[in-house]
Structure formats: structure tokens, C-alpha cells
């Protein structure tokens, strides 16, 4: 096999190792601090940090840290088991992912939408029949937070160990003597032939839970106020649209950077099981505790922004897939599509061909889907007003994440496509935000 560089970096330098260690230590503290701010300090991060400084870390942790509970741990375990069963046994369309640096093209069963429907119908039926309290997730949130943290850490430790001892596709692993043990090793770790650990955890425990958590916090708000506010309804509508669209287009997701490029380690293991369901739902958590009311004009403006962002996101991805599917014989915005025919090679010495689109949204900005993601994140957070920073965490996180991904994508594509990518950058100069960056 020939070593290729566009799929991963096999060596971790000192800076990377220090950064990884900092992330492992600080990440759980971040989500705990968010919960503490919401639970005890009226969602004020400033007041929370002042309390931390005045009391000292040990006393602060003793007084305010979330506590585990047997009931929450049992519920979280049952949740993982349910989603794992649905993932393993529900029928669904088969699709092929993007070719890996090692030359593999893996098959996936995309049954996420069915799993989402079954989960939410069961939750709704249980609530209507009086079998469960729809606000139970919100009421047991601190215990669930602890349980998710524990599972995310366990998964993040076990994933690289599996990569060292029994990798599924050794050609796609990044293993070297300099590799930090906390970093990701396997690209597509699987148990057996079909149970893909990364694909399962990327979509099921966190993203299926995202809307379920929102609905529970809405029920909690209704229990407190007697009604659900329009900002809560708006953020639930926008985020439900995002989640359902994700599962409708789950086959497309198998060809995105998360699946085709990111190796499975702490960032995805802990991030998808803990950070995603706790941080992406901060708007609903905030509004349940700090209800606000938007004017009809503000509501319409936020809704219009969110729907516009969604339309850009969906149409941009459709344009790229449409042109590639038709080998360039397509029209975008009423004109023949323009593009660059590029080639790249994998470690098995095979040469592959693709299209770099220079028209439609991809002629406006090189990462049109990222721009739409950022705009949609702003709309979601705007439902909470501008008096607190905490509910805007999702927007700031997405900004940093997408900026980082832009840089990483640029390096990867430059290594993968060479002169073809340089030509593309000349034709489409803007990376993330047209006219700005």
C-alpha cells in the first residue's frame, strides 16, 4: 500500500497532544458549567464564574456539580439499547459511502428516519396514555448529563484501544509511535460486518435525542407556565426541521467529512454522545427556565432567516450531487453548470475522477453548506434574545467548528486534488462567508 496524505495525519505533534489533553479535561467541565449556570445562576455565565472564583474550585464543585442518579443511569442505558436495536434490525435503504484513503467503499443501512419516527411516536403515545411524564427528561437532566458524560468517556477510551488491537480496516488507521493515546485511530470502526460504531453514534444517541429533549423541555415549560411560548415553538420547529432533514438525507451524510474523513476518537465519541445533546439543546433548556416572548415581526424575521438558511443548505448539497450524478451535464440557476474535472489517487494506486463545482452556490463560496449551517445556527439562537450569552453557545461553537473545518478541508483538498484545487480557489475566492472570509 502507498501512503496517502489527504485522508489523515498519522503523526501527532506536541501541540496536538497538548490540545487533545486540554480538550479532554475542559470539555466535560464546559457542559457541567452550562448546567450550573442554568440551574443556579439564571443562565448568567459571568455570575457563575464569579461564584467559582470566590468559592474556589473544590467548594464550587461540591456545592453545584450535577449528581448521578440510578434512575437516570438506567434510563440512559435503556436509551442506548433501544437505539442500538433500532439501528441493527430496522430495514432501510442501502448506500455506499465515499471511498476511503485505503480504497474502501463501505455499505450503510440508512434507517435513521424510521428510528426517529418510532422513537417519537412511542414517546408521544406514552405521554398521551399517561405511561410517562413528557417532562421526565428535563426533570432528570442532571443525572442524564452525568450518565452521558460517563458513557462518552468510556467510549472515547475504548475506541482507540480497539483501533490498536483489532482495527476493522487497518489501511485507514492512523497509528504511529508518536500517536497520542487519547486521539482517534480508526476511520470506520465496526463490530462485525455491519455495526458501524461511528455511523451509529454520529446519528442515533445524540441526534434522535435532540428533538426528544426539546419536546421534554417544552413540556416542562408548559407545566410551569400553563402554556408553551412562541420562542420555544420556533426553536423546536427549526431544529426539528434540521433533524428530520438529516435523516431524510442520511445516505448523503455517509459522504460528508464526519464519516469520510474524521477518525473515531474523543471528538466524535464524547462529542456525539454528550456535547451534542447537552449543548445543541441549550436554547430549549434556557427558554424553559427563562421564558421570553417575541413580537410577531421578530418571530417572522427569525423564521425567514432559518428557512432561508435551510434552503441554501439543501439546494447547495443537491446542486453538487446533481452535477456529479449527471457527469456535468446539468443546469444550475438556468445556466449550464461550470466545473473543474479533477482526479485523485488512493493508497492502492487507483486513480479516481470527480467534479469540483464552480457554479450555483459553490460558485459563490467554497463551503456553501457551512455558510448555511452558520446562518441557521444564528436563527436558532436568536429565539432566545440577546440578554444572555449562554443560549448563543451553539452559534459560537458552530462558528469556531466551521472555521476550523474550512481550514482542514482546504489542506485536505489541496493534498488530494493538487493543481485542480488551486484552480478552483482562483475561481471561487471566498471560503465561508461571501464578501467577508
Automatic annotation (TrEMBL):
Q: In which pathway does it act?
A: Steroid biosynthesis; cholesterol biosynthesis
Record-level GO cellular component terms: endoplasmic reticulum membrane
* UniProt cross-references to InterPro entries, sorted A to Z: ERG24_DHCR-like (IPR001171)
Write out the transmembrane intervals.
Answer: 12-31, 73-92, 113-132, 144-161, 225-244, 294-313, 374-403
Signal sequence range:
none
Which GO terms fall under molecular function for this chain's record?
7-dehydrocholesterol reductase activity
Spell out the subcellular localization from the entry: Membrane
Which Gene Ontology biological process is one annotated for this entry? brassinosteroid biosynthetic process
Topology with respect to the bilayer: Multi-pass membrane protein
> What general EC class does the enzyme of this chain belong to?
oxidoreductase
UniProt keywords, alphabetically: Cholesterol biosynthesis, Cholesterol metabolism, Lipid biosynthesis, Lipid metabolism, Membrane, NADP, Oxidoreductase, Steroid biosynthesis, Steroid metabolism, Sterol biosynthesis, Sterol metabolism, Transmembrane, Transmembrane helix
Reported EC number(s) for this entry are: 1.3.1.21
Q: Which reaction does it catalyse?
A: cholesterol + NADP(+) = 7-dehydrocholesterol + NADPH + H(+); 7-dehydrodesmosterol + NADPH + H(+) = desmosterol + NADP(+)
Does the keyword Lipid biosynthesis belong to this entry? Answer: yes
Which family does the record assign? Belongs to the ERG4/ERG24 family.
Q: What is this protein called?
A: 7-dehydrocholesterol reductase
**From what organism does this protein derive?**
Neohortaea acidophila
